[in-house]
Specification:
Elements lengths: L4 H13 L8 H8 L3 H7 L3 H24 L6 H14 L3 H14 L3 H24 L4 H20 L5 H16 L5
Helix pairs in contact: 1-2, 1-4, 4-7, 5-7, 6-7, 7-8
Length: 184
């Protein structure tokens, strides 16, 4: 599948977004792509259209990712939950985390960004709650456990743990065990 010209602009916009939405400017993105800003206007009407395309790409990509990661595909719900914990705790995708944080900061002052973040959060919570329900938890307990699950997933990525990687790995393993117990 080939990238459209708009995709290149959106990706370049994400590179700037990681430093803050105010940095996503037509001139900056064009310079980073090594093209004139006139090329931008062949694809987008204005900066707002680029920002909308970025939010759509981020929202749709995040939702597709969580749906993929929570699909059972022959695994048990508990195995799938453990795989998600492993995915988010064993390797740090610093670029994706920077974009996530930038969008959340942007969402504090922009309705479209807030709506995109809310859609992603709703999908994350819904899909993980379904996994917890599949383990036998009642609806309310599964919803609360899904909320706690995501507090852990994102919170652990922001913490600096004294004691180095070994201590971090121990804390992650113990926390994961608590998130995967029968009666949390």
């Amino acid at each position: 599948m080939t990238e459209s010209k708009g995709d290149v602009w959106v990706e370049a916009g994400f590179a700037e977004l990681a430093r803050g939405v105010e940095g996503v400017r037509v001139e900056v993105v064009a310079k980073n792509l090594g093209v004139t800003k006139g090329g931008f206007y062949h694809r987008f009407a204005d900066r707002a259209a680029l920002l909308d395309a970025m939010l759509t790409r981020w929202r749709d990509g995040r939702i597709a990712s969580i749906e993929k990661h929570t699909a059972l595909d022959g695994a048990s719900a508990r195995e799938r939950l453990k795989a998600i914990i492993t995915l988010y705790s064993e390797r740090m995708n610093t670029e994706a985390m920077a974009i996530e944080l930038a969008i959340r900061q942007w969402a504090r002052t922009d309705e479209a960004a807030a709506a995109a973040a809310a859609s992603v959060d709703a999908a994350r919570l819904k899909n993980v709650a379904q996994l917890y329900r599949a383990t036998g938890l009642p609806i309310e307990a599964a919803d609360a456990q899904a909320f706690l699950f995501y507090c852990f997933i994102f919170g652990q990525s922001l913490l600096f743990v004294e004691g180095g990687p070994r201590k971090r790995a121990q804390l992650l393993a113990q926390s994961a065990d608590k998130l995967l117990t029968e009666n949390p």
